[in-house]
Amino acid sequence: MAASIFAAVPLSPPVAVFKLTADFREDGDSRKVNLGVGAYRTDEGQPWVLPVVKKVKQLIVNDNSLNHEYLPILGLPEFRANASRIALGDDSPAIKENRVGSVQSLGGTGALRIGAEFLRRWYNGNNNTATPVYVSSPTWENHNSVFMDAGFKDIRPYHYWDAAKRGLDIQGLLNDMESAPESSIFILHACAHNPTGTDPSPEQWKQIAAVMKRRSLFPFFDSAYQGFASGSLDKDAWAVRFFVSEGFELFCAQSFSKNFGLYNERVGNLTVVGKDADNVKRVLSQMEKIVRTTWSNPPSQGARIVATTLSSPELFDEWKGNVKTMADRVLLMRSELRSRLEALGTPGTWNHITEQIGMFSFTGLNPKQVEYLIKEKHIYLLASGRINMCGLTTKNLDYVAKSIHEAVTKIQ
Ligand SMILES: Cc1ncc(COP(=O)(O)O)c(C=O)c1O
Q: Where is the Aminotransferase class I/classII large domain (predicted)?
């Protein structure tokens, strides 16, 4: 028989974070802990269906006016409008001036991908394969691949994390913006930076905006954790809203995976803020073409859940309460882990655990210490030392803290 036409296909390595979860599942040790996965867990270590989501799902089931017709290519109108409203704020001048548009997408990833594809085709002239795209160092690993797959050939890191001081390298970041070619694209984490858990302060965002405006750099916000960082939707959207108030045209990719716990429904939104209604209309007309050849039109269930919740004042309040429950549990785990490490006298400083925000903490553990935790302690985390705070529970905190202590004291 002739060889397979696929004989030359190289085997690609698995995606690290999903591989980690698969390894965790196979591990038979009763002490095992998964600190790798990027999803919320309750104090029982279980996924959480938000009570408001449960309620809205029931409303949808009982609503006989709903059917399974195709949605419009750009998505459910009430979802798109409400999603953009929570990103930009109720009194956003851009919304009032009718210069905001949006595209319902398959998760935050889909929003990034549609935005990237559009920018490559149409931003600042057409066919922008050579336009530099800057991503923070480090960043969520998919940023590089999404922009590369959209055709961008020059993807560059910008300074972000200062490992020595375990905080933001604001000077390095500003210097990189100063020296970036005009019209470069910058991917900015709106809040709860993944993986470092470290965001610029409002004063630092102001400095960033000033340089970006002077150097004509394009802000593409990635907002995957609104509400999760501080427990407040408004506080977590501060940077995006500040940029809009400064007159920027921008994109904001929103994910409802984390703050609604709708990971597998794939519900996201790409908010487009333009100079005026006419510009936004033309941009959306091109995005519609891109969506048509990508997924043709989006799924409805997740978008309906979000739209129903956001458009009812009572359900909206209930949702904000649910988000706060998740954010508060993360904050509690942060302080509990820090106090245990400090009580054990674990070498190093651990204040960064409580200073960082969002789901993740960049512990500062090195790859050898991570390997020790996985192999000897059955505690799974990314090689970068990033841990998901939601993997911690009141039952495993002592074990995790003691294991980190051992890893840090035994292995340099
Ligand atoms: C920074 C960042 N952006 C985007 C996403 C994508 O979210 P979604 O699962 O909605 O595609 C994630 C998810 O982990 C993320 O951490």
A: 31-404
The CA distance from 68 to 45, in Å, is 35
Q: How confident is the model at residue 42 (pLDDT cuts 50, 70, 90)?
A: very high
Mutate to test the pocket of ligand 1, among 140, 359, 389 (most ligand atoms within 8 A of CB): 140
Active-site residue, 169 included: no
Catalytic residue check, 319? no
CATH number of 16-49+328-410: 3.90.1150.10
Right CATH for 77-311 from 2.40.160.60, 3.40.640.10, 1.25.40.10, 3.20.20.300: 3.40.640.10
258 is annotated as an active-site residue:
yes
Distance 224 CA to ligand 1 centre (A): 5
**Helix, strand, coil share (%) of the chain residues, nearest 5:** 45, 15, 40
Alpha-carbon distance 139 to 180, whole Å? 18
Closest listed residue to residue 310, CA positions, set 294, 322, 326, 299: 322
CA 347 / ligand 1 centre spacing (Å): 33
Alpha helices in 124-273, H assignment, sequence order: 142-149, 170-179, 202-214, 233-236, 238-245
Of 140, 161, 205, 319, which one is the catalytic site residue?
140
Q: Which atom of ligand 1 is nearest to the CA of 193?
A: 1
| pTM of the predicted model as reported, rounded to 2 decimal places | 0.96
> Whose Cα sits closest to atom 3 in ligand 1?
224
